[in-house]
Design a protein that fits this description.
198 residues, 20% helix, elongated, five-stranded mixed sheet, disordered N terminus, 5 helices, 7 strands
Length: 198
């Protein structure tokens, strides 16, 4: 579908700010942090190509072609299950695994205020892996310097390890609950898979 040929109803304002929540075939988001979304144009193209099932639309939001009107998708799910791979070793996934908390003092910080620390320092051939790197605030990172936690008189809150996609989702789901960008239309679809004891 060529979205250039679609005309937005004049009463719809800021349509380009609307995103579409994308669920896997098991009705779970493809990822929680960042939450799996597409632009409404990508989602509409996928709906028209029958690659996804449209579960919910934005009320009163439509776009028109020369001959048809289309509701704007708010939530879609993939027709085929997308198998999750192992969590990529990225700065973001590391901070997500650690809940955006310094692993020495436990202080919660924004990603921009966190650093990462090699538990076994790089100068001692400490590898850049999930098992050797933790999130740290700048003051703890400076205090630890080029030492092991024991040498620096510091203790890790927990032993670092590679997280599974499920573990990252669990942390992401908790963080997503406090995010303000969750559209009301999505809420019924976001917590179906949440553990009952949470």
């Amino acid at each position: 579908m060529n979205t250039d040929l679609i005309e937005i109803d004049p009463h719809v304002h800021q349509l380009n700010t609307h995103r579409t929540l994308v669920l896997n075939a098991d009705m779970q988001p493809l990822s929680w942090m960042p939450l799996s979304t597409w632009s409404w144009q990508e989602a509409m193209t996928a709906v028209l190509q029958d690659r996804v099932i449209q579960l919910k639309t934005y009320e009163e939001l439509t776009v028109r072609s020369a001959s048809q009107a289309f509701e704007v998708p708010a939530v879609v799910c993939l027709r085929e299950y997308h198998k999750r791979k192992n969590a990529a070793f990225t700065r973001y996934n590391l901070f997500l695994r650690d809940g955006f908390c310094c692993q020495y003092c436990g202080t919660k910080k924004a990603a921009k205020d966190l650093t990462f620390d090699h538990v076994l320092p790089r100068s001692r051939k400490g590898p850049a892996t999930f098992e050797n790197i933790v999130a740290a605030c700048q003051s703890c990172n400076l205090r630890k310097a080029n030492k092991t936690p024991r040498e620096a008189g510091m203790k890790l809150l927990r032993k670092p390890r590679a997280p599974s996609p499920h573990e990252l989702d669990k942390v992401g789901r908790k963080l997503a609950r406090v995010q303000k960008e969750l559209h009301q239309t999505w809420l019924d679809f976001l917590y179906w898979g949440a553990d009952l004891e949470e």
